[in-house]
Model the fold of this input.
Amino acid sequence: MKRTCKKGRCAPAGAVAQRRLDKVAAGASLAGMRVLLFCLFPLAAWTAAAHSTNTAETADRAAGISSASVPAVKGTNDPVEVEFRELMLADDAAMDEVDQWIRENEKFKEHGAGTADEALNARIQRRFAPVRRGYEAFLQQHPNHGRARLAYASFLQESGDEAAALEQMLKAKEVEPGNPAVWNNLANHYGHRSPVTNAFTHYEKAIELDPKEPVYYQNFGTTVFLFRKDAMAHYGLNEQQVFDKALTLYSNAVALDPGNFLLATDVAMTFYGIKPPRFDEAIAAWERARALAADDLQREGVEIHLARTKLQAGRLAEARAHLDHVKREELQELKRRVLRNVEQKENPAPTEAVPPAAAAPPE
Done:
């Protein structure tokens, strides 16, 4: 399977953090499902700048490490852990190089050049080969190293070998059943590949093992929200109760990580998919996200979302006021799009007159 440049994975500043997030089960593998919402509501594009900081912090917390340059077990010079650290750094270096190749090739293709997909894929697999051999040699020597199996599973997923990745995750579960990251990673897999009910039960176990990790609640909430029918059947709930369950899980995540802008926007984005709309709750969620914005790009992006939500709620003057705050050049097309919708609501097209029904012919 050909490696492709995935959303959130090709930004130079965030590439390593995003992959480390996969390896320690901080939920990055759910990005694909969340993109389903982002594709429907592309105003989320401006949140990409928040990924590198928030995902790195979350990865460190979930893994119990302080940075990519220290051993996975803090405060130890255990040679096994040092070797594991070096293996992960080699993994990250290979992934970064491959991401660079993909970005460069996409640019060349825009100008009618570039490498054929088959040739690029062969080059990628050659670059991955020594890393794969390194993981296999390490695990042959240390078969009960659960975190190494999780890291290898992430690497295999990146390489397109999902069956082998699942095998490694299941082995990690055998050797480290008390590691919540194992359960969360498996839940992510089942959320993508089914059965979804396995995802529910595995997230529940991850939370049971580590109730203080916000990413587990966020992943669980996202899966419940996206697979509502499965959640309704599994938990015996109606659709509105499933929405409430997802929002409660998100609330738990926010309570544990209240300063996370990306999480706050993720929660607010959820309200676009809830029917009937919950405008007051949606507006409150976007206002919380705005309060966490770190710069003008994030803040003005939230203003566009607030404008869109208030447009849908019929609060047109307020929607215009939010758009007035949007000055960034990269947001002007989104601003114009929402503004056109506001203007259409303010000046609806006249309804065409319906001709009277023809009189019935006399008897």
